[in-house]
Design a protein that fits this description.
The protein has 4 helices and 11 strands. The protein is of the alpha+beta class. The chain has 2 domains: 146 residues; 124 residues, Beta Barrel (AOC barrel-like). Helix 1 crosses helix 3 and helix 1 packs across helix 4. The longest helix has 39 residues. The protein starts with a helix and ends with a strand.
Length: 284
């Protein structure tokens, strides 16, 4: 609820600025020049060309385009993205707010005039939008990383018997879900009858309610019942919001003395504690 209010506080001024900037820019572009003065469409405002003497501009076409497309367009797009709760809308709102404030700064500096109340208002709103969007991004990103970190401990088959030597993570935001590609190497780990060095590679999808699904592949240079070789198997599973998980492993393929080992099994647990049961057999 709190984040929803922040999104509204971002999107409402963005929408108002978008309408104002697009309308003002179009009025400038549709205006007419008379005696060195741009008369805005509708005759509501006048802009003397003399104001541009200290700038590289010869008329108000470029400022009007920037106001319409740069300020108004960016504000309109980000307002819609934030309303639909798209994560990219938060980062885009940071940029949109800076564009608004930057436009005012450049305008005041180039025209070398005193700051009007409307310019001060737009500048303040631009900073407010950027500030709120930055806050929202940091809060939601921290929560996202927390969910990903907890899931990684599950999806990586974490029974830290002898040591975790190397971990690689590649996280990606998918709309409201979080996708994590992970790789983990375990050295000299013992899982009951299976002992050896493990490498886990997989993909996890974390949902907004902290439930998740994961799948991947384990590769083990290990010893099973006194026989050594390389063993590979696939795994898949799900996780509930409280961190408990369950799944299956299957498609065992071996090399060396483990070439004739086959079987499948199940696992379950919570956090770093888990158990498994399996039916393993060597072909004759």
């Amino acid at each position: 609820m709190k984040h929803k209010l922040v999104r509204i506080a971002i999107s409402v001024p963005e929408a108002l600025i978008a309408l104002s900037a697009i309308g003002g820019g179009i009025a400038l572009l549709a205006g007419t020049y008379k005696d060195g003065v741009l008369i805005e469409a509708g005759g509501r405002a006048q802009f003397p060309l003399a104001w541009l003497q200290q700038t590289p501009l010869s008329d108000y076409t470029i400022p009007a385009l920037i106001l319409t497309i740069g300020v108004g367009g960016s504000s309109l797009i980000t307002a819609m993205l934030v309303f639909t709760s798209r994560e990219v809308g938060v980062l885009a709102s940071i940029m949109a707010g800076l564009i608004i404030a930057g436009y005012i700064v450049v305008e005041v500096v180039m025209l070398r005039q005193a700051v009007s109340w409307i310019e001060g208002l737009y500048f303040g709103l631009g900073l407010l939008i950027s500030g709120l969007a930055a806050y929202l991004w940091m809060v939601e990103d921290q929560a996202y990383r927390s969910r990903v970190r907890r899931l990684f401990d599950v999806a990586g088959n974490t029974n830290r018997a002898a040591g975790d030597s190397c971990t690689e993570r590649h996280a990606q935001q998918l709309d409201k879900n979080s996708r994590l590609n992970h790789r983990r190497v375990w050295q000299v780990v013992s899982y009951g009858d299976i002992t050896g060095s493990f490498t886990t590679e997989g993909t996890s999808i974390v949902h907004p309610d902290n439930t998740a699904s994961f799948s991947g592949r384990d590769t083990c240079t290990c010893t099973v019942a006194g026989k050594s070789g390389t063993l590979m198997w696939n795994f898949t599973g799900t996780q509930t919001a409280d961190g408990s998980f369950q799944g299956q492993f299957f498609n065992l393929l071996g090399t060396g003395d483990l070439a004739k080992l086959h079987g499948q099994g199940e696992f379950q647990g919570q956090g770093n504690h888990w158990t498994y049961s399996a039916e393993l057999h060597f072909d004759a």
